[in-house]
Automatic annotation (TrEMBL):
Lineage: Eukaryota, Metazoa, Chordata, Craniata, Vertebrata
One Gene Ontology term, aspect cellular component: cytoplasm
Source species: Camelus bactrianus
Protein name: PRAME family member 15-like
Biological processes annotated in GO: negative regulation of apoptotic process; negative regulation of cell differentiation; negative regulation of DNA-templated transcription; positive regulation of cell population proliferation
Record bears the keyword Repeat: yes
Length: 478
């Protein structure tokens, strides 16, 4: 039975203030100790004490008000009260003596702040970020700088939720007084016109991460392109499911309008593209506009041409890759030397390689093994869903044994694990697992190997991880 923790005096004081008289609590804010503000704010927020919230905002003695962790609520009344309190501040030419508020943070952060000041935290938060600003009673007036507002935008379906609609209208009516900074943007299935209307209120050069999962046509993507070009600080871009049933003549112009914007993305380090049917045979039209070396590149679940792989291996800005993901890209129709050249180019820096469901056969894997064995920084290797024999799986284990950082290995169950009809044979699988364990024991280095079935008859997935890993640990000498 856990010990009961009595409420702190600060918490009792805040509760008592609000219970006795809300007007008295507001009048007392000028004289309350700084330490009481966070717990009093939480009491007022969850108790929906609207007038108290407005007053607390106007006297907030911290630089930052982290509201993001509190906005997962069905009622937007308390949040509107905070904005109403900010309106009073923004209408003033000088800041009240007590108020130090410079930043309203609507991202899902700040939990440490609230837990520290409410006594719920089990550790002390860094005082460099969250400690209260010391009051200077000799100063009675401070110039009012524009308020910074941080928010992560998640645009889904056709319309915005109630709070986001209210908030963006509030921002729009206060241009020049609010600096709206969005670092993360996620768009899922929202029409491009609605997206552009929302983003017209955002300072786009603040964005650092953009995810777009939209069944837009290339014409819509071309319309979005000028906005992408304004996202000059973006470091991570994820693009998936652009809808192109048949590439037509006008689509070439649309593609050029979109890919040319990459010239302006000077900070792009991570580029992830899923199911881009419009790039088959045209990957070079995107690669040639890259301005900086990428850390991670993935292009998945699509068809690529031989020229695409050739241009990828020639691209100067992929030579420092730490992560390469080609899962779901069929490689059986190409010469394995293309993949070998690509791996040789990134061998010095590559840490993660994902070649799941690429149709790789014994001959393909044997061709790339020399290049693979030179990837000295490789930590994760995924080859699930490919058809490999036991003999080639053994060669793989032996050729990669010299990679000192390799710690996560995901391989397909050898093809001998299946009947001629493709049904997994439990007894045969157990036998092959034992043989693989003997190979690991012979090599003598601790390793963990995950085998997967494909197609799995139990869950229906293309790749599954139902089987226990093969774990070899060096025995300790007696």
């Amino acid at each position: 039975m856990s010990a009961w923790t009595p409420p702190r005096l600060l918490d009792l004081a805040g509760t008592s203030l609000l219970r006795d008289n809300e007007a008295s609590a507001i009048a007392a804010l000028e004289y309350l100790p700084t330490e009481l503000f966070p717990s009093l704010f939480l009491e007022a927020f969850f108790g929906r004490r609207i007038e108290t919230l407005k007053a607390l905002v106007q006297a907030w003695p911290f630089v930052r008000l982290p509201l993001g962790g509190l906005i997962e609520l069905p009622h937007v009344g308390p949040l509107q009260a905070v904005l109403d309190g900010l309106d009073v501040l923004l209408a003033q030419k000088v800041r009240p003596r007590r108020c130090k508020l410079r930043v309203l943070d609507l991202r899902n952060t700040g939990q440490k702040f609230w837990s520290m000041w409410s006594g719920e935290g089990t550790h002390v938060c860094s005082r460099s970020r969250m400690a209260p600003v010391a009051e200077d009673r000799s100063r009675t007036k401070q110039p009012l700088a524009p308020l910074k507002v941080f928010i992560d935008l998640y645009l889904k379906k056709r319309t915005l939720n109630r709070f986001l609609t209210y908030f963006l209208r509030w921002v729009e009516r206060r241009k020049g007084l609010i600096h709206l900074c969005c670092k993360k943007l996620k768009i899922v299935s929202m029409p491009v016109g609605n997206v552009m209307k929302v983003l017209s209120r955002v300072q786009l050069d603040c964005l650092q991460e953009v995810q777009m999962d939209c069944t837009w046509r290339l014409s819509a993507l071309a319309g979005f392109a000028p906005l992408l070009g304004q996202m000059t600080s973006v470091q991570r871009l994820l693009l998936s499911h652009i809808n192109v049933s048949a590439f037509e003549e006008q689509d070439q112009q649309h593609l050029a309008q979109f890919t040319s914007q990459f010239l302006r993305l000077h900070h792009l380090r991570n580029l992830h593209i899923e199911s881009p049917s419009f790039l088959e045979g045209r990957l070079d039209q995107m690669l040639r506009f890259l301005k900086t070396p990428l850390d991670n590149f993935s292009i998945t679940n699509c068809q690529l041409s031989e020229s695409d792989l050739t241009h990828l291996s020639w691209c100067p800005n992929i030579s420092q890759l730490k992560g390469l993901d080609l899962s779901g890209v069929t490689l059986t129709d190409f010469s394995p030397e293309l993949l070998q050249v690509l791996l040789e180019k990134v061998a010095v820096t590559l840490q993660e390689l994902d070649l799941n469901l690429c149709g790789i056969t014994d001959s393909h894997l044997e061709a790339i093994l020399p290049a693979l064995s030179r990837c000295s920084q490789l930590r994760t290797l995924s080859l699930g869903g490919n058809l490999l024999s036991m003999a080639v799986t053994e060669k793989l284990l032996r050729r990669t044994d010299g990679l000192p950082s390799l710690c996560a290995e995901f391989y397909p169950a050898p093809r001998e694990s299946y009947s001629p009809q493709g049904v997994p044979l439990r007894g045969r699988i157990a036998q092959l697992q034992a043989e693989l364990m003997e190979i690991l024991r012979d090599l003598g280095r601790p390793r963990t190997i995950w085998l997967s079935l494909s197609f799995c008859p139990y869950c229906g997935d293309d790749i599954c991880d139902h089987m226990e890993p093969i774990v070899y640990r060096c025995s300790t000498p007696a």
